[in-house]
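Q: Could you predict the 3D structure of Translocation protein SEC62?
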Amino acid sequence: TPKKKETKKKFKLEPHDDQVFLDGNEVYVWIYDPVHFKTFVMGLILVIAVIAATLFPLWPAEMRVGVYYLSVGAGCFVASILLLAVARCILFLIIWLITGGRHHFWFLPNLTADVGFIDSFRPLYTHEYKGPKADLKKDEKSETKKQQKSDSEEKSDSEKKEDEEGKVGPGNHGTEGSGGERHSDTDSDRREDDRSQHSSGNGNDFEMITKEELEQQTDGDCEEEEEEENDGETPKSSHEKS
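A: Sure. Here are the predicted structure tokens for Translocation protein SEC62:
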């Protein structure tokens, strides 16, 4: 019996107004999204704070005075931040007008930026110079970058040439090697000729002999002496027999 291929059925799920469970072969999904403990605690604290604020007239006198001073301090802090935001803009405009738009000085540049509370108070100030010298520096930087690019391109071209020479080089090295061997042979011949001429000029007739040649000559002389001795002994033995 051939095995049937198992095909996975695809179901389309759609939300329905009547959330009713019935016994059947239908497909359903149950989404469970519980409330996190942190959100529950925060909501409870918020409810308690609202109830406590509504019961403010019933608080003790010391607590009411403390809350008053806290509210005044918070208001002063917010007002100081707003005054700083206005003052930094005024300071920037004064410096910009005096220097003709060349110097851009910002006190607490991140005060109104979308950053954290601590990051909004750092850095303390920033200064930028936007004058003719700055334009010259930018031009010099661009020129140096262009020179570096041209140097890198020239280096790449020189490397390509060296690679091509290296590919062509091995055949030439062989010819140069054979020529060098020939030169070395001719040089050795010339040196031997010079030595022979020098010896003949001094009146001393001798030849340059290596150690191997000396050993071969000594071995040959020993063999000749042994042969002569053997030749001398054979006639004696013949005379004795006679």
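Q: Anything worth pointing out?
A: Residues 132-202 form the longest helix (71 residues).
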